[in-house]
Amino acid sequence: MITRAQWTAAHGQAMEMLRRSGVRLLGREVEAVQVLDFDLGDWETSGVGMLVLLATPAIVVKLLALQPGQTCPEHRHVAAEGIPAKEETWRCAWGELVVGMPGEPTDRPRAVLPTGREQYYTSRREIVLAAGEQFTSPGDTPHWFQGGPDGAVTWAFETPSPFACGIFTDPAVTDPVAKIED
């Protein structure tokens, strides 16, 4: 749980990243930007600003905003209810996005994993996306992503999944969407 003031500050930070990127949002879209804190209580380290632009039975399109060094914790999407495991393609719109994937660990990693939670980041091969570059993660593959030195704004193109939020490696993550305490 976060306070309304914390949520407002986090939403403002996400909106600032979107403004910097040049992406224009309509008024109703500004209100729809979600704050994801993953129940970890540390938005600055583990958090994402997210706007779902389109969700149909065939495709989901999101806009994600990450502050410098801000991380979406490691997770994977599995097949369920007869629906294949979700694939995700990230196309960096602004800044730099570091994506952690399984494979040979990167010799000189760019990302700094959240202190005290390193054991929940098993995918240590880094893929670095600059503006205009994209990468696709296959379904049922553990992955995480982090904003680069100036942060990142990225498009996410996804196949639908009944487990849209993913199954997180860190057992402390129970729901990505920040809940405001009243």
How would you describe the overall organization of this protein?
- This protein has 182 residues and is mainly beta.
- 13% of the residues lie in helices and 36% in strands.
- It has 2 helices and 9 strands; from the N terminus they run H-H-E-E-E-E-E-E-E-E-E.
- Strands 1, 2, 3, 4, 5, 6, 7, 8 and 9 form a 9-stranded antiparallel beta sheet that branches.
- It starts with a helix and ends in a 14-residue tail after the last strand.
Task: Assign the structural class, choosing from mainly alpha, mainly beta, alpha/beta, alpha+beta, or little secondary structure.
Answer: mainly beta
Q: How many angstroms separate the termini?
A: 9 Å
Order of helices and strands: HHEEEEEEEEE
Which architecture would the CATH scheme give at its second level? Sandwich
Low-confidence stretches: none
Helicity level: 10-25%
Strand content: 35-45%
By CATH reckoning, the class would read Mainly Beta
Question: What secondary-structure arrangement, pairings included, does this model have?
Answer:
Layout: H1 4-21, H2 27-32, E1 34-36, E2 48-55, E3 60-66, E4 71-76, E5 88-101, E6 125-130, E7 134-137, E8 143-158, E9 167-168
Antiparallel strand pairs: 1-2, 2-3, 3-8, 4-8, 4-9, 5-6, 5-7, 5-8
